[in-house]
Each structure stands twice: as structure tokens, then as C-alpha cells.
Design brief:
5% of the residues lie in helices and 38% in strands. With 406 residues, it is mainly β. The chain has a six-stranded mixed beta sheet, with no helix packed on it. It starts with 14 loop residues before the first strand and ends in a 5-residue tail after the last helix. The relative contact order is 0.13.
């Protein structure tokens, strides 16, 4: 990522009569600004002082007078854009009303009025720190799509904080990731790798739960000179409880809504066994475990070569499939397959997907939302792993061990 990607300050220049508290909230000790507050005989003080450098963009910037009142304060960046600020009610102090930008140079000019007459103008110019690199965080579903602000998701929704750079200091980053829910639920972050942290509750959400996620990373150093590029946030609601149980003993998918069985779907799951292709072992099980709905498409092109099975091999394929609802990162879907209707409910014939009739596949496609639970029981093969979208299969104590703050 280019070190030239900087955030600019906003250009508005309105001064309001109210009080603003601006606190430094860097996750590590901010670099000390060089220079000190400028003291002038007239009593106007500007901090950081003239010539200060490497200033924390979230650190305090203050103009004050101990003698009389401030009559005018302006703050501009090197491009001449004004920074909005506010005066305290008694007009003895001023602060910017917005965070500053990285790699910027600001000039503050202040004038006042005291019992002895006009004071100032007093001017100070300082610069903010320039990160070696920056990272942006995206708040997504496990399917990689955004957790849409104001959207509705399933009771098994896993929040994914995806960073576009490797994070050297996971603890510093995790401290900046905040999830709040109404009602309150216990939850924790789990780092899948250096770029992805997943958050889930200990148990499924209750329908109607309100969830808010914030990533307050701007101004925070996340290790080795990597700073947050900007903050991110989203809020969503948990919809009705959708839990589907696919049981290989019966070869049926029972679909429950808020605890009530509303539909039973005959299915044909993975045929089992494995095949070695190019030195790689490919299995044909529908792995047991707790999945969630990731996304869906109609149609989707299914290509066996994407997981190492050549299209022209004995079991290879590439075809357009309708009403496909994805539940794993490595391509397990509940989908329509008219040619296997004869097997649905009695025989497993697929490469791992759950085949349904056209009518049942379309019904499930319309019913499902990201975050809905799909539990697969009594099949062979290795249990579903976290990286495959198996977050809910990990026992809670092991999930907590995946936090950088544990």
C-alpha cells in the first residue's frame, strides 16, 4: 500500500459557541511533538506550538487566553482549507471540531481583546505525523460482502473485520474494534489470520437484537509504523431465527423458523470417499458441522477445477446451477439439481453440496438470509473448520483463546 495515501481534513470553517472535548486516543503512546506552546505577553497561547512536528492528529489542539476573550481564531491546512472549530461559552478557549489529517501542515492564527486592548494576532504553524503505511478495515459477513448498515441478518451472523494490510500488533487493532448489542450478549473476537478477525456471541443472537460495530482505527498505530486510515462503522438487526438441520441419517433438511418446523426438504449430499489428483487429496463428503448462510446467486457457475479437480477428469464438471445458497468458503451450496431428484431423500450422489429439487431450492433461496444457521449432522469426513465458515463449531473456550487480548 502506498505511503502517500493520506486523509484530508474537512474544509468547513464555522465557529460555534459550545464546548468540545478532544482527547488523544492513540492505541500506543503518541510521538512527542517538537516545540512547545507559544506564550506571548498578551496572554494568547497556542498548542502545539510554532514549529511542532509529528503531532498526533487526534491529540489536543488548543488556543486559549488568560486575559480577556478570544475574538477570532482561524486554522487552515497547507492547501488553505479551513478547519471547523468551536469556542467555549466564555470565549477563553478554542479547539478544532474534527480530527486532523496525516502528513498535514496547519497554521493557527488567533486574536483577542483584553482590558488593556486588542491582543495578537498570534500565529503558530505545526505538522502532523506521516505514517509509513496505512490500513483500511471493512466490516463484512463471512461471505465477504458488507454488513449493510440498517440491514437484517441471521441469528448466526459472524462479524468479519477485514484489514487490507497485515496487522503487526493484533492487540492494538482489537482494542479499536467495538461491538455493542441490545440486549447485551457475551461475545469475543477470534483472529483467523493477520488480516481477518471474526466476532460472534457465545450463543446465537435472539431475534430482534440490535448490533452496532465500530472500528475506531484512525490515528492508531497498529504496529511497525502502520496506522489506521479511517474509522468504519455499521449497525444491523437480527431477523427471525432460521435454523436448518440436514441429517444424513434421514437425508432430509428440516427448516425451522423461531423454533417451529416449517418445511422438510429431501436432499442428496456428498457421495463420500476421496480421489488423489495431482498429488492433492480431494474428498467428496458434506462435512459435519455448523455452517451459516454466506451468500446466494442465481445462477452460479460451478467449476470443479477451482478446488483442484480438472473439468475433463472422471468426476470433473463445469455447469450453470440455479438457486444456489452458499454455506462454505470452499464451495458447499444448497442448490437445485433436477437430475438428482430421484436420489434426494435416499441416496448421496453429490461432490459435497446439498442437492434439492428446483422448487425446494428456489424456496430455500428466497427464505435464507446471510447469517442463518445450517447444521449438517451424521455425515462422514473431517469436521468443518473455522476457515471453511465453521466459526460456530469451535467450543467457546477455544474461541476465546483466539482473541489477541485473551
Amino acid at each position: 500500500m502506498s505511503s502517500r495515501r493520506f486523509r484530508s481534513s474537512v474544509a468547513a470553517g464555522v465557529v460555534l459557541v459550545t464546548v468540545l472535548v478532544v482527547a488523544a486516543c492513540s492505541s500506543s503512546a503518541p510521538q512527542q511533538a517538537t516545540g512547545s506552546a507559544e506564550q506571548v505577553p498578551a496572554g494568547i497561547s497556542i498548542s502545539p506550538g510554532d514549529g511542532a512536528s509529528k503531532v498526533d492528529p487526534l491529540g489536543p489542539v488548543r488556543v486559549s487566553t488568560g486575559d480577556g476573550q478570544l475574538t477570532s481564531v482561524t486554522m487552515t491546512n497547507e492547501q488553505g482549507k479551513a478547519v471547523e472549530g468551536i469556542l467555549t461559552p466564555d470565549k477563553t478557549a478554542w479547539k478544532p471540531a474534527e480530527p486532523l489529517g496525516y502528513g498535514r501542515t496547519y497554521t493557527v492564527t488567533a486574536e483577542g481583546l483584553s482590558i488593556t486592548g486588542r491582543t495578537g494576532p498570534t500565529t503558530a504553524t505545526f505538522s502532523t505525523l506521516t505514517p509509513n503505511n496505512q490500513t483500511k478495515v471493512y466490516l463484512n459477513t463471512t461471505g465477504g460482502t458488507p454488513l449493510k448498515d440498517g440491514g437484517t441478518f441471521g441469528v448466526g451472523t459472524v462479524i468479519v473485520a477485514h484489514f487490507d494490510e497485515d496487522i503487526p500488533d493484533r492487540a492494538a487493532a482489537e482494542k479499536r474494534l467495538v461491538v455493542t448489542t441490545t440486549p447485551v450478549v457475551e461475545g469475543a473476537w477470534y483472529w483467523v489470520d493477520n488480516r481477518n478477525a471474526h466476532w460472534r456471541p457465545q450463543q446465537y443472537y435472539a431475534p430482534g437484537t440490535k448490533v452496532s460495530v465500530t472500528a475506531n482505527i484512525f490515528g492508531a498505530e497498529l504496529g511497525k509504523g502502520l496506522f489506521g486510515q479511517e474509522d468504519s462503522k455499521t449497525s444491523f438487526t437480527i431477523g427471525p431465527s432460521h435454523v436448518s438441520i440436514a441429517d444424513d441419517n434421514t437425508k432430509q433438511v428440516q427448516v425451522f423458523e423461531n423454533g417451529n418446523l416449517i418445511r422438510t426438504l429431501p436432499t442428496s449430499m456428498g457421495m463420500g470417499g476421496s480421489e488423489v489428483v495431482g498429488g492433492k487429496t480431494i474428498t467428496f463428503w458434506t462435512q459435519p458441522g455448523v455452517y451459516t448462510v454466506m451468500d446466494k446467486a442465481n445462477p452460479v457457475i460451478m467449476d470443479s477445477s477451482t478446488f483442484g479437480l480438472p473439468v475433463n477428469s472422471r468426476l470433473g464438471y463445469k455447469e450453470s446451477i440455479n438457486w444456489a445458497t452458499r454455506i462454505s468458503t470452499d464451495g458447499i451450496y444448497l442448490h437445485e439439481l433436477a437430475s438428482s431428484v430421484w436420489a434426494q431423500g435416499n441416496t448421496n450422489t453429490s461432490h459435497g453440496c446439498l442437492n434439492l429439487s428446483p422448487a425446494n431450492a428456489q424456496w430455500f433461496f428466497d427464505f435464507a438470509v446471510p447469517g442463518d444457521i445450517v447444521e449438517v449432522r451424521n455425515t462422514g469426513g473431517a469436521p468443518l473448520e473455522v476457515w471453511q465458515n465453521g466459526d460456530w463449531g469451535l467450543p467457546w473456550d477455544q474461541w476465546q483463546q483466539g482473541s489477541a487480548l485473551h
